[in-house]
Amino acid sequence: MRLKKGNKKMDIIAIGRACIDLNAVEYNRPMEETMTFQKYVGGSPANIAIGTSNLGLNVGFIGKVSDDQHGRFIATYMAGKGVDTSKMVADQEGRKSGLAFTEIKSPSECSILMYRDNVADLYLTPQEVDEKYIREAEVLLVSGTALAQSPSREAVLTAVAYAKANDVKVIFEIDYRPYTWKSEEEVSTYYTLVAQKADIVIGTRDEFDMLEGKEGGDNQDTVKELFKYEPEIIVIKHGVEGSFAYSKEGKEYKANAYKTEVLKTFGAGDAYASAFLYALFNEKDVETALKYASAAAAIVVSKHSSSEAMPTVSEIEELINNQSQ
Ligand SMILES: Nc1ncnc2c1ncn2[C@@H]1O[C@H](COP(=O)(O)OP(=O)(O)O)[C@@H](O)[C@H]1O
Ligand SMILES: O=C(O)C[C@@H](O)[C@H](O)C(=O)COP(=O)(O)O
């Protein structure tokens, strides 16, 4: 599937959370002993909006942030990165933006400590989703975490309905985060609902297992089931072991991870999705798009942040050219 850059006023509109990452400045230390954290904009769909904007796509964002210094920092930072924030709303009930503290114990042992009680992003309402805005985009990028609770859940389902009614492609980034979900059955129900309507579904093997409500699932079974519905491309990531893309017409592609000096593991998925979309918008085939995605992910895991580390096209292409897979 090729996406048409410049076909509509916007290439991509992302919907979901825009939050704050506080990344440990002192590496190789448990959180208990970490004294300094650096602030960045975070939240998977915000990272992807920034990542794709960085790569030259025309991107907008729908979401709710706190009406305070953090919310203003997020909106100003994203606008500075070229993201249209005209549909980003500030919560009027005093709810806060989510915080994600990251712990970097070792390059492979990283974790995230989320402060997300009653967060503003999960209070986006269907009334705050504008059909005219979505209609202007080639792609609606949906983050699965935004389905965790009402009214954000209904806001996202409304956005998906607007996209389907207006010939806007839906890309579902499963983005499973256990916090805020009430039960695994709910996860599976809402993930399945959106995945069946999406044109492209991207997730890790574990995330597809959550969608299917089982453990140790098999890629062939996953794609056989989802291709009965709307999806045309399904991307399944297997961490450092690489990733696979499957097309509805029966093609299968694999990309290996690129070698890099890993600082931390988070941010990989958001860089991956950004570069995958960039490539599809720039007339690359799926196999090449997987390479762009994997190279972008390798660049971000070697750097300190997710949003601020999003690579340029030339950085991605240099890595691809230097390490033929
Ligand atoms: N240690 C690593 N070194 C290089 N690339 C990596 C590493 N870990 C992940 N990647 C790349 O990032 C992609 C996404 O990583 P993965 O961990 O599967 O997703 P997520 O970050 O969404 O959990 C992988 O398919 C791979 O290309
Ligand atoms: O998504 C979040 O709320 C936290 C992110 O901002 C953080 O940078 C991160 O964990 C990204 O990781 P990824 O989803 O594995 O790319």
From TrEMBL:
<protein>
    <recommendedName>
        <fullName>5-dehydro-2-deoxygluconokinase</fullName>
        <ecNumber>2.7.1.92</ecNumber>
    </recommendedName>
</protein>
<feature type="domain" description="Carbohydrate kinase PfkB">
    <location>
        <begin position="11"/>
        <end position="312"/>
    </location>
</feature>
<dbReference type="GO" id="GO:0005524">
    <property type="term" value="F:ATP binding"/>
</dbReference>
<comment type="similarity">
    <text>Belongs to the carbohydrate kinase PfkB family.</text>
</comment>
<keyword id="KW-0547">Nucleotide-binding</keyword>
<keyword id="KW-0808">Transferase</keyword>
<keyword id="KW-0067">ATP-binding</keyword>
<dbReference type="InterPro" id="IPR050306">
    <property type="entry name" value="PfkB_Carbo_kinase"/>
</dbReference>
<dbReference type="GO" id="GO:0019310">
    <property type="term" value="P:inositol catabolic process"/>
</dbReference>
<dbReference type="InterPro" id="IPR030830">
    <property type="entry name" value="Myo_inos_IolC"/>
</dbReference>
<dbReference type="GO" id="GO:0047590">
    <property type="term" value="F:5-dehydro-2-deoxygluconokinase activity"/>
</dbReference>
<dbReference type="InterPro" id="IPR022841">
    <property type="entry name" value="DKG_kinase_firmi"/>
</dbReference>
<dbReference type="InterPro" id="IPR023314">
    <property type="entry name" value="Myo_inos_IolC-like_sf"/>
</dbReference>
<dbReference type="InterPro" id="IPR029056">
    <property type="entry name" value="Ribokinase-like"/>
</dbReference>
<comment type="function">
    <text>Catalyzes the phosphorylation of 5-dehydro-2-deoxy-D-gluconate (2-deoxy-5-keto-D-gluconate or DKG) to 6-phospho-5-dehydro-2-deoxy-D-gluconate (DKGP).</text>
</comment>
<dbReference type="Pfam" id="PF00294">
    <property type="entry name" value="PfkB"/>
</dbReference>
<comment type="pathway">
    <text>Polyol metabolism; myo-inositol degradation into acetyl-CoA; acetyl-CoA from myo-inositol: step 5/7.</text>
</comment>
<keyword id="KW-0418">Kinase</keyword>
<dbReference type="InterPro" id="IPR011611">
    <property type="entry name" value="PfkB_dom"/>
</dbReference>
<dbReference type="InterPro" id="IPR002173">
    <property type="entry name" value="Carboh/pur_kinase_PfkB_CS"/>
</dbReference>
